[in-house]
Amino acid sequence: MPKLRRSLFIGLGGTGMTSILYAKKMLYDNYGDIPPMIGFLGIDTDGPGFETTSVTAKDGTRISLTAAEILPIVVQNPRDIYARNITSDRFKWVPEHNVSALDQLRVGAGQVRTNGRFAITNREADVERASAPKSTRLTMRPSEILRNTVCLEPRPRYMWCSR
Q: What is the pTM of this model?
């Protein structure tokens, strides 16, 4: 069996979250449990609700992402945020024809790629706060956790999203 590496799987959007859910199922099917050196983080603009999504493992176990593995990045008043920053370079990349689509961000990205990028840009600090501890935990060995010393091994992060 191949050697596992400490890894954080990050899913962006509904497609990415579904992908990491199936990756989690695959690991469970192959190892009988989720290896402790593997972490998951699903990031989506739809807010809470993905917690109820699950898949069934070969042995009948329901596999889902836990609340700690899901980061909703809902953006309140996205058009106002855009308007307040229109003179800066912060959202220069938003095409003019997509500005009206920003209103959808209250209920999800609506399959508009720039909406997802807008949400990530606005919630960047939240994304970093959610991913940093998971990354750090994955690079610590049990003995190092006790000594509170971080291991300097590489920290692979794998991301899935729709293309």
A: 0.76
Residue 66's contacts (CB-CB under 8 Å, 6 or more residues apart) are 51
b/e 43-81 (16+ beta carbons within 10 angstroms → b): bbbbeeebeeeeeebeeeeebbbeeebbbbbbbeebeeb
Name the DSSP letter for residue 99. G
Q: What is the pLDDT of residues 7-38, one digit of tens each?
A: 888 888 888 889 999 999 999 999 999 988 88
How far apart are alpha carbons 120 and 157 in whole angstroms?
17
Cβ distance 69 to 42 under 8 Å? Answer: yes
Specify the amino acid at residue 125.
A
> Alpha-carbon distance 41 to 136, whole Å?
13
What CA–CA distance (Å, rounded) separates 41 from 108?
Answer: 18
